[in-house]
Amino acid sequence: MARDKAVNVRYGIGVGARKTFAARELADLVLEVAARFEADLGEATLAALATHEGGDEFSRVAEMLGMNFELLPLERVQQAKQHVLTRSPRIEAMFGVGSLSEGLALASAGAGARLLAPRIATTRLTCAIAKGEDA
């Protein structure tokens, strides 16, 4: 896509971890989720990897993938709670939102964002992707 067309898409990728994890493991999951939902994270894309705590490992993954990193306050994530697709009573009791990774993705992608699908979960990680309006 030509740079002069200025049609940049904003993707927010919300991630969470239940236990310790390897940076490569999370990077692979992010790439898998982006590919599964045909999210082009290339040059014409504004993409951010977002979490609410534990920034060091997540920041390293964002750097590995050439993405921005956002450490979002829980209050901002909770503002997206009515738009999440997954509802976990345990997560909602802990964080005030049915799916932390989905809320993070929505908050990161900005106003008018929509989830491309419910979050993907592995035994140690969760990942959700939201697409915002053209930036």
Commentary on this structure:
- The protein is of the alpha/beta class and 135 residues long.
- Helices cover 35% and strands 25% of the residues.
- It contains five helices and six strands, in the order βαβαβαααβββ.
- Helix 1 crosses helix 2 (55-65).
Topology:
Elements (H helix, E strand, L loop, with lengths): L8 E9 L5 H14 L8 E7 L3 H11 L2 E4 L2 H5 L10 H7 L4 H10 L4 E2 L4 E2 L3 E10 L1
Helix pairs in contact: 1-2
Number of domains: 1
What's the CATH first level? Alpha Beta
Helical percentage? 25-40%
Low-confidence runs? 1-7
Share in β-strands = 25-35%
Radius of gyration of CA atoms, rounded to a whole number: 14 Å
Structural class: alpha/beta
The CATH topology: Nucleotidyltransferase, domain 5
User: What letter string, H or E per element, gives the SSE order?
Assistant: EHEHEHHHEEE
For the biggest sheet, the summary is:
6 strands, mixed
Shape: globular
Question: What is the number of helical segments per DSSP (H or I, 4+ residues)?
Answer: 5
Summarize the structure.
This protein is an alpha/beta fold. The chain is about 35% helix and about 25% strand.
Features:
135 residues; 5 helices; alpha/beta; Nucleotidyltransferase, domain 5
